[in-house]
Design brief:
By secondary structure, this protein is of the alpha+beta class. The chain is built from six helices and ten strands; from the N terminus they run ααααβββββαβββββα. Helix 4 crosses helix 6.
Length: 241
């Protein structure tokens, strides 16, 4: 850590100067060392040229930036709250539709399952073993590596990494990977980091996942794609408005 004490420059103005792109770019380019030990040389800090003006003008600029950035931060906070509310509404719509249907006037019955609660009276309950079978296939020679994510679903790993996301790549022992077919449901058995995702792609994926094959005569995959993401929150938890 370098401690800088401003003497002939307004402290807040200096703070904003050091947030500027050119300074950060030059500081990064001057770093030396390896791995996590990289550091900016003290000479770069000492010799970096700064654009300055009178102290009065510096304070005026710093005050202006304070006001503008505070307004932007407030807008960002409001948008983040709206995004969270929209995410909750999205999840509630999913849960309401897949566990109660689209007609609110139909008679309901107890499903016998705590997390589901009531379902339309004409719906039937079935165990997943009668609807899905487990895929046993190991990796095929021409399979491309897949990645499972809750945000994007099942995507090719190269496409996932092109967006700047990091993944653990399989370098050796690829023969233990599993084969995925389009229309499979891919479930992480270690955590829900990858969630329960429907795949539209063929490829290979980590042995930490299990692939379920839907029975086409009983399962409409797009419906189950949403059902398996349901947390059973009602759309109107306190009654319809």
């Amino acid at each position: 850590m370098y401690v800088i004490r401003p003497t002939k420059i307004d402290p807040k103005f200096l703070f904003y100067l050091l947030q500027e792109h050119d300074f950060k770019q030059q500081a990064t380019a001057s770093m030396y060392g390896a791995g996590g030990l990289k550091r900016v040389p003290v000479e770069m800090i000492k010799n970096f040229s700064l654009n300055t003006s009178t102290l009065e003008n510096q304070r005026t600029v710093a005050t202006y930036i304070d006001r503008k950035t505070a307004r932007i931060d407030s807008i960002i906070a409001d948008k983040e709250k709206l995004i969270e509310l929209l995410k909750e509404k999205r999840q509630a719509i999913i849960s309401e539709a897949v566990t109660r249907g689209l007609d609110p006037s139909v008679p309901m019955k107890d499903s016998g399952v705590d997390w589901i609660g009531e379902v339309p009276a004409h719906w039937e309950m079935s165990q997943s073993r009668w609807l899905f079978s487990s895929r046993k296939d190991r990796v095929f020679p021409d399979d491309e590596q897949l990645t499972a994510s809750q945000q994007l679903g099942i995507v090719y790993q190269k496409d996932y990494m092109e967006q700047g996301s990091r993944v653990v790549q399989v370098i050796t022992g690829a023969d233990i990977l599993k084969h995925v077919e389009p229309n499979d449901f891919v479930i992480s058995m270690r955590s829900f980091q990858g969630g329960i995702e429907w795949s539209g792609l063929q490829g290979k994926i980590s042995s930490a996942y299990v692939m379920l094959i839907p029975d086409q005569s009983l399962v409409y995959s797009p419906f189950f794609k949403w059902l398996l993401k349901s947390d059973n929150r009602p759309l109107y938890p306190y009654g319809k408005p």
